[in-house]
Every structure is written in C-alpha cells, then in structure tokens.
C-alpha cells in the first residue's frame, strides 16, 4: 500500500533538479491540455502509467489485519420521523465522532432510487464523448461547474489516479442551465435531499456535544454545500499510485456516497489503515477539519485515502458542508460552551474562506492543514 507522506526517496530525488522540474511541468501541462483526464489515458489503452502518478512507499503506517474492527454503522430508522428515542443514536454518534471521525448511516431517509440515480448520473457524465466533457473542463474555480483531473495538479508532489467534477449547490443554487444535462436533474434532487439530511445530522452532532439540537445549524454549519463527483478509472499499475492521497476534509462534515462494487476507501486510526467497505444504501459520514476545530478536538477529523485498483471504474459522490471559498466575514473558533479551565482553546479563529484558500494552495501533500491553525 502506498501514500504520499514524503517525497524524499531516492526514486524521486531526480525531480529536485531544475531540468526535472521543468520536464515534469511540461508533462503535466500536456496531460492537462488533453482535457480528457485520467479516463482519457485509460481509454487510450496505456499499460504503464506516467511517472508523475508514481507515489513513494509509505513506511509510516500499515494496513490493519483485524477484520473484527470497523467503523460503526448507525441506523437512523425512526429518528427522521421522530418515532424513535434519540439517546441511543446520539451516544453512537458521539462515540464514533470521538474515536473514528467516521461512521456509516442507514435508513437515513434518502430513497434508494435517488442514491442509484446519483451514481448513474456521475457515471454517465464521464462516459460522455470527450468533446462534450471538454466544454466543462476548467481550472477556474469560479465557474458554476468545474470538471478536471486533480485540483492541485501543478503543485502536488504526486498526482492522484482520478477525475472530478465540482459544483456549489448552496447557499446560492446554480442556474440549472449551467449543469450538464446528463446529470442535471438528479444533481439538484440529490443535493436537496442531502441538505435535509445534513440538518438532521447537525442536530445529532449538537446533542452529542451536549448543546441545543439547533446549535450547529444556527452558527452556520449547514449553510453551504459543495458537491464533488469522483471517477476512479481502473489502473494498470495500482501498486504505483493512489486514487486519493492521505488527507482530511476541510469542512464541517462530509456525506459520501460510494458505489457498491468497488471498495478502496480507508481511514487512518492508531497509525493503521482500516477499510470502509461499501454498505448497500448507506452513506459514509466523516468529521471535517472545521468541526474538529470548533469542538476543540473533541470530534476528530481523521485522515483517509482511496486506493487505486485494477477494477473499476469506482464512483463516489462527496457532499461537503461548507461555504468553502465564498466571501464571508463569519469567524469560527472553539465553541465557548465547550471550553473550561481544563479545556482551553487549541485553535485560532478563522473564516472558512481563509482556511480553504490555505488548504487549496497547499494541495494534498499528506500534511493536515488544521495543524497550521493551532495556537
């Protein structure tokens, strides 16, 4: 298994020379200029992946062999319509958020039809002819719909084996005409369902912190929604690269829909990687950096990654609750109600825009952005 914790290995030493850097930039630009992404490489029939996708071996962590340990799966049945007592669910949410930073939810209220159509929508977008997709290929993040390969292509030490589209769905919904026809309707419907579920989750998380159920929503945690559609093509040399490098998310919470066919998502706990296997009809919930910051480390934004695989394509839809880089003057810091003489603030106060600009410019380099904001 591999990840990008370091680029100091001998095999990457040549990249430190000016000529090697220039050659690498030229190769990256040539790849970027195709506007066909990683899928384009696979469609061309390559049997060896370009060297800029190569990742050094990770010697700092190992894969857990304990098949009896896994992230919690929490059943929300009855919670959505108020038929069930909340105490047991809140306890499970609290424990998962503190120990793992991850949990899966079932019976969450989003119809299976919507989940399946959303995955199909992502799949259909990438299956379109290249000339159609190229209309949306851009690195201008101000565009309402952005499709490209690796947002940090030109700054990351090692490029990931995936393509992605992104769009803001809240607080300012896009003009439907700006979204690709092939996934327009389901993207709007799915995002609406995710917004409603997000309110429920923020209520449970608020209560898990001992706060009023509406606390997190009232301070703006549910205000913004940023949706990403990931496409991980099958890789001819998965042992040399990664689907997504080790990272934590720069938001409050992420709701992830992954396909039922191809695994690969792993979470890092106690210096070991644990698989998060797909569960039919489930959503994976993970705590983001900003929620760890405002809870003063009570809830954990654990690092995670996606392995490359010869199987595929793997489809996933990540919904980030955050206003991301939108202009804002709203400042977030450790919640005062959670602080005490024995629990002083551990982080600076920041705006979501400043945090996300820092994170974006840093790229997925294997180092947590949150560490930069510690007091």
Give an overview of the whole structure.
The protein has 375 residues and is α+β, with helices and mostly antiparallel strands. It contains nine helices and 15 strands. An eight-stranded mixed sheet has the order 2-3-11-8-13-6-5-4. The protein has a five-stranded mixed sheet with strand order 1-10-9-12-7, with no helix packed on it. Strands 14-15 form a two-stranded antiparallel ribbon. Helix 3 packs across helix 6 and helix 4 packs across helix 6. The longest helix is centred in the middle third of the chain and has 25 residues.
Keywords summarizing the entry:
alpha+beta, disordered N terminus, 5-stranded mixed β-sheet, 8-stranded mixed β-sheet, 375 residues, 15 strands
Give the count of helical stretches.
9
Question: Roughly how many Å is the radius of gyration?
Answer: 20 Å
Q: Please, what is the average pLDDT?
A: 92
| Percent in helix | 25-40%
Overall morphology: globular
Sketch the major β-sheet: 8 strands, mixed
H and E order: HHEEHEHHEEHHEEEEEEHEEEEH
The strand order across the widest sheet is 2-3-11-8-13-6-5-4
Poorly predicted runs of 5 or more residues: 1-14
- End-to-end distance, in Å? 34 Å
Q: Beta fraction of the residues?
A: 15-25%
Number of strands: 15
Helix-strand makeup class: alpha+beta
């Amino acid at each position: 298994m591999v990840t990008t914790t370091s680029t100091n290995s001998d095999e990457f030493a040549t990249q430190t020379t000016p000529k090697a850097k220039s050659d690498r930039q030229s190769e990256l630009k040539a790849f970027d200029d195709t506007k066909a992404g990683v899928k384009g490489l696979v469609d061309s029939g390559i049997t060896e992946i370009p060297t800029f996708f190569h990742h050094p071996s990770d010697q700092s962590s190992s894969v857990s062999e304990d098949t009896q340990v896994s992230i919690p799966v929490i059943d929300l049945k009855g919670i959505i319509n108020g038929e069930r007592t909340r105490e047991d669910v809140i306890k499970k949410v609290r424990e998962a958020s503190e120990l793992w930073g991850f949990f899966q939810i079932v019976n969450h209220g989003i119809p299976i039809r919507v989940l399946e159509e959303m995955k199909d929508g992502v799949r259909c977008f990438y299956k379109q002819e290249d000339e159609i997709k190229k209309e949306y290929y851009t690195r201008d993040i101000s565009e309402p719909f952005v499709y490209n390969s690796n947002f940090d292509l030109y700054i990351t030490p090692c490029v990931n084996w995936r393509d992605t589209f992104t769009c803001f769905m809240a607080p300012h919904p896009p003009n439907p005409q700006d979204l690709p026809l092939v996934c327009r309707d389901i993207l709007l419907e799915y995002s609406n369902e995710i917004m409603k579920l997000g309110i429920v989750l923020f209520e449970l998380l608020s209560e898990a912190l001992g706060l009023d159920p509406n606390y997190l929503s009232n301070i703006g945690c549910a205000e913004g929604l940023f949706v990403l559609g990931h496409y991980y093509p099958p890789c001819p040399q998965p042992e040399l690269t990664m689907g997504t490098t080790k990272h934590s998310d720069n938001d409050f919470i992420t709701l992830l829909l992954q396909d039922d066919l191809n695994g690969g998502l792993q979470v890092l706990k106690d210096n070991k990687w644990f698989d998060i296997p797909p569960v039919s009809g489930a959503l994976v919930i993970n705590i983001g950096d900003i929620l760890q910051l405002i809870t003063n480390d009570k809830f954990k934004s654990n690092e995670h990654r996606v392995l490359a695989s010869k199987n595929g394509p793997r489809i996933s839809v990540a919904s980030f609750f955050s206003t991301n880089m939108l202009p804002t003057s709203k400042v977030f810091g450790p919640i005062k109600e959670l602080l005490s003489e024995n629990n002083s603030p551990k982080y600076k106060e920041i705006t979501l825009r400043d945090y996300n600009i820092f994170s974006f410019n840093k790229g997925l380099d294997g180092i947590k952005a949150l560490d930069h904001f510690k007091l």
